[in-house]
Amino acid sequence: MSHEGTYEMRVVSIDKVSEYEGIEIVIKGWVRHRRSSGKLGFITVRDGSGDLQVIVSKGVVGDEQFAACGRLTQESSLIVQGMVRKDDRAPGGYELDVSYLEVIQIAEPFPIQPKEHGVGFLMEHRHLWLRSNRQHAILKIRHQIIRACRNFFDDRGFTLIDTPIFTPNACEGTTTLFQTQYFDQIAYLAQSGQLYGEAAAAAFGKIYCFGPTFRAEKSKTRRHLMEFWMVEPEVAFAELTDVMQLAEDLVAAVLREVLIHRKPELQVLERDIDRLEAMMPPFPRITYEEAVETLQHKGIAIQFGDDFGGDDETILANEFDRPVIIHRYPAAAKAFYMAKDPERPELALCMDMLAPEGYGEIIGGGQRIHQLEVLSDQIRAHGLPEEAFKWYVDLRRYGTVPHAGFGMGIERVVSWICGLDHVRETIPFPRMLYTLYP
Ligand code: 4AD
Ligand code: MG
After folding, report:
1. Strand order through the sheet with 166-167
2. In 10 A of CB 16, how many CB atoms?
3. What DSSP character marks residue 46?
């Protein structure tokens, strides 16, 4: 091994070492753990793709390198070269017999130790906490979920359309808007890409947007973030039933992909995999009115017109062993753009999907008002600034068609599939009521 940068030739990521049995390779990574016994050092190295036990022998590497090995602390960075050896007792089935070791940095004492830490402490060290096994597993699953969403829509002929983050208007009500100065104007951070998605659906037929969205949620719950990621399909010539089916297909595809590719990560999280495997479609569909009756039978004081709280959603979801779709909520409590059921104008042609096991709403959406007059009336009735919505109303002037869509919150889905207590661990750097650091 030379110091002249020849490493690149044989650098292997740990998840691929099984392909290199009996071959000299180079691993670049960090020390998860080290112990020594006499003239042998045992280092568990992680490189982001996996963990590998590497064995450093004083007789092979010499006194100087062996002494360097002895100074390695948790999270020290290093490069090792050695021969891959199969060993059934080793955690991944392989070990590395080191012939050369280069220390990049001896890490200072790592704040996160293999012991219990409080959530506050861990959140404050989120930049380091990401290296732990559990956080790594969660974010690998998040990645798989996002990839599954993209593949799902791409494979079905949807076009990805990026919608703006600075917007002049509210989409989901004015109470959760983040306001910001935009030179000499006021702008709001997007709560949803939907309105722009509708414009794009008239241009492309089937679209999805996938971006960060912002809500000034002044409540501390285990389901709410101020900044979260939402995937939002919008389909021209689609009605409520079409997007209920689309939502079911999407969630089933996401679940399937995670079960195919991320079982080891689910195991790290001790997720009940059998239970996830049983959550396949068809998903039950009930009306809002049926849901209210169910809650009343359970002794909950709820009446037609009331919105479901987090606890109500949990009770409803617990009635089923898979996601459930609730449709046709009272229009009065819903967003201005929602189409009304022609047979029951007091109901909106909307739907929510609730995840099982108490995870609550993961999807919200429905059919949009497509008639010019009806939409203009609604904008006025909701007291919204007509000037800011002029472009949106315009869409109803030039070849308007029935259309529908929905939004799925990625963090809610990650939380449910991973079986977490709180959404704060589902995103690398969560933004919460009192958390803006790191
Ligand atoms: O139900 P919501 O508010 O629907 C919309 O924004 C529609 N404009 C979407 C559309 O039709 N294109 O939000 C959709 C989803 C929720 O079901 C939930 O999964 C997630 O976004 N969500 C949140 N996730 C984390 N933190 C929050 N504060 C969230 N608010 C909504
Ligand atoms: Mg909703």
Report:
1. 166-167, 185-189, 179-182
2. 11
3. E
Which CATH number goes with the domain that contains 318? 3.30.930.10
| Contact of 413 with 364, CB cutoff 8 Å | no
Beta strands 227-236 and 403-409 are: antiparallel
- The best mutation among 213, 412, 414 to test binding of ligand 1, ranked by most ligand atoms within 8 Å of the C-beta, falls on 412
128-154 tens-digit pLDDT: 999 999 999 999 999 999 999 999 999
Q: Which two tokens stand for residue 76?
A: 């020290």
AA letter at 125: H
H or E segment and range at residue 128: helix 126-129
Give the ligand 1 atom nearest the CA of 233: 12
pLDDT, one tens digit per residue, over 226-255 is 999 999 999 999 999 999 999 999 999 999
d(CA 49, CA 26): 14
Provide the mean pLDDT of the chain.
95
Same domain, 64 and 132: no
Say whether pTM exceeds 0.85.
yes
Measured in whole angstroms, the distance separating CA 62 from the mean position of its chain's CA atoms is 47
Residues 252 and 358 in one domain: yes
**CA–CA separation, 240 and 327 (whole Å):** 9
111 lies in some domain: no
CB atoms inside a 10 Å sphere around CB 247: 25
Quick one: how far is CA 377 from the chain centroid? Answer: 37
Mutate-to-test residue for ligand 1 from 158, 215, 230, highest number of ligand atoms within 8 A of CB: 230
Quickly tell me which residue has 């790191």 as its tokens: 438
CB of 364 shorter than 6 A to ligand 1 = yes
Count of CB atoms situated within 10 Å of the CB of 194:
26
73 with 170, same domain: the answer is no
